[in-house]
Specification:
- The chain has about 500 residues and is α+β, with helices and mostly antiparallel strands.
- It has three domains: about 70-170, Beta-Lactamase (2-Layer Sandwich), CATH 3.30.450.20; about 175-300, Beta-Lactamase (2-Layer Sandwich); about 315-475, Alpha-Beta Plaits.
- It has helices at about 10-15, 25-70, 90-95, 100, 105-110, 115-130, 175-185, 185-195, 215-220, 225-230, 235, 240-255, 300-315, 325-345, 355-365, 365-385, 410-420, 450-465, and strands at about 1-5, 75-80, 85, 135-140, 145-155, 165-170, 200-205, 210-215, 260-270, 275-285, 290-295, 345-355, 390, 395-400, 425-430, 430-435, 435-445, 475.
- Helix 7 packs across helix 8, helix 15 (about 355-365) packs antiparallel against helix 16 and helix 16 (about 365-385) packs across helix 17.
- The two termini are about 20 Å apart.
- Residues about 1-20 and about 480-490 have low confidence and may be disordered.
């Protein structure tokens, strides 16, 4: 069903009366009613703000526990590089307390005297491209000692997909660098250390033929050192990396350009597993400086990668229901709108608001309310297809994205199935809880062509569904004006 809403009223079509024709008692009464309406709207806004703040505090507490217990130094700094967060591992690594670090310039604190040129370049590149960067850079601790850090930089985006801050994670690799220096000192000492090293170590001729493989490579990959000898590097790594390795070797042979120093990729093992490795590559040179061999050190960073993925998941997942959160919803909406424009295909946005949830939450408490929300998310998930996108964007508000697709989207049929999925009461702690849902539908490009406008149209259509009796869906013929403040009882 499609409803057309007009913002014009009969009063707006009549000419304005002059001030001397107004009835003074009616004017006073009207002002009092207006003040009362504004007061009610303010009270409703304050109550809802407090409820959202309580949920935000709960989510922040869970994130803070994980953040503080992380074994990797994690530093969050804004676009001006002022530090806004500094975890316990950062305190241990650099020697500055969180209170001392907050508000300080990131580069000044971790590298006084401009000793972090490579790190600054990597952060600038990440801010420019929003692509994660890695680099090695010497830093200084609070006590003046130097340490070499392996830095990984990623961006944090706000709800509008704008870069809000940078997350820089640091691992102390000073010992590993010292180990590399000793390896280059002499072949004898190199062999001695390599045979007992925990990290995998190998050398290769300039054409890529492996000339040495340490015993630890067997522990990492499952292949014995003798099986790797005389193989080409590109044949021993993952096929997705082999092409880049071949190109780097060709540049080394023809132009004398050293290969890229730091590589990260997934490495298949003999038993079919895959592990993330970081390989640091250097050149072994003759006394005259000419390169004679390639040195690689094949470190297992699977745990580090898993932590990165977990942090990303926490930033984009609703902790209560496991659904995509508001941030990820907006990312997907923007992505699908770009695809819809390119393919010239329609897209539908469904905005869902639960009916009766406030009564359950108030009468049975937040724990029961949380159980109901989890059950609602599970039921809604049974309706949407894998190609659709279901998200929880606020307390009892959900969204569903359909398309873009060359096939008919049929959002009304999807909305009807979503409503039907909640027809049966949800039982929590032996108590049946009846929940309904009001759904607003907005279509691209019919109702709007931009993300914010499309969401606003779907929200307005949902208000109409609430007004017309709830537990139903509504579409818009054209975007209407927002309902007056204080009229949403949900």
């Amino acid at each position: 069903m499609r409803v057309s809403v007009s913002c014009l009223t009969d009063s707006s079509r009549r000419p304005l009366q002059s001030s001397h024709m107004l009835n003074e008692p009616d004017t006073v009464r009207g002002l009092l009613l207006l003040l009362a309406a504004l007061l009610l709207a303010g009270v409703a806004w304050l109550w809802r703000s407090r409820q959202l703040l309580a949920r935000l505090r709960d989510s922040e507490a869970r994130y803070r526990v994980f953040y503080e217990l992380a074994p990797v130094a994690i530093i969050v700094h804004d676009r001006g590089h002022r530090i806004v967060d500094w975890n316990r591992a950062a305190e241990r690594l650099f020697g500055w307390s969180r209170a001392q670090a907050l508000g300080q310039d990131f580069f000044t604190l971790v590298g006084p005297g401009g000793a972090v040129v490579e790190l600054r370049d990597a952060v600038d590149e990440t801010l420019r491209t929003t692509v994660r960067s890695t680099t090695l850079n010497w830093s200084l601790r609070a006590d003046g000692t130097r340490l070499l850090c392996d830095w990984s930089n990623s961006v944090i985006k706000d709800a509008h997909s704008d870069v809000a801050a940078v997350v820089s994670m640091a691992i102390d690799v000073t010992a590993a660098r010292e180990f590399e220096r000793r390896l280059r000192a002499s072949e004898r000492r190199f062999r001695s250390f390599a045979e007992s090293a925990y990290d995998g170590i190998w050398t290769a001729a300039l054409d890529g033929r492996i000339t040495y493989a340490s015993p630890s490579l067997e522990r990492l990959t499952g292949w014995a050192p003798e099986e790797l000898l005389d193989q080409q590097i590109q044949d021993a790594v993952d096929p997705t990396v082999a092409k880049d390795v071949s190109a780097a070797l060709e540049m080394l042979r023809t132009e004398g350009t050293p290969p890229r120093r730091h590589w990260q990729f997934e490495q298949p093992t003999r038993d079919g597993r895959r592990l993330w490795v970081q390989v640091t590559v250097d050149l072994l040179r003759a006394e005259n400086g000419a390169p004679v061999e390639i040195l690689g050190i094949t470190r297992d960073i699977s745990d580090h990668k898993e932590m990165e993925l977990r942090l990303t998941e926490l930033a984009h997942t609703d902790s209560l229901t496991g659904l995509p959160n508001r941030r990820l919803f907006f990312d997907r909406l923007e992505e699908r709108l770009r695809l819809a424009r390119r393919q010239e295909q329609p897209l539908a946005l469904l905005f869902l608001d639960l009916d009766g949830f406030k009564v359950i939450n108030d009468s049975h408490g937040h724990l029961v309310g949380d159980e109901v929300l989890r059950a609602v998310a599970d039921r809604l998930a049974t309706v949407v297809r894998e190609s659709d996108s279901l998200a929880r964007v606020a307390g009892d508000e959900f969204t569903v994205l359909l398309g873009p697709s060359s096939e008919p989207l049929m959002p009304e049929q999807v909305a009807a199935r979503l409503i039907a999925s909640l027809a049966t009461p949800i039982e929590v702690q032996g108590e049946p809880c009846q929940i309904g849902v009001s759904i607003g539908i907005a279509l691209y490009p019919d109702d709007a062509i931009e993300a914010d406008a499309l969401l606003r149209c779907a929200d307005q259509a949902m208000y109409l569904a609430k007004r017309d009796g709830r537990n139903r869906y509504m579409t818009l013929a054209e975007p209407p004006a927002l309902p007056a403040s204080g009229t949403d009882s949900r």
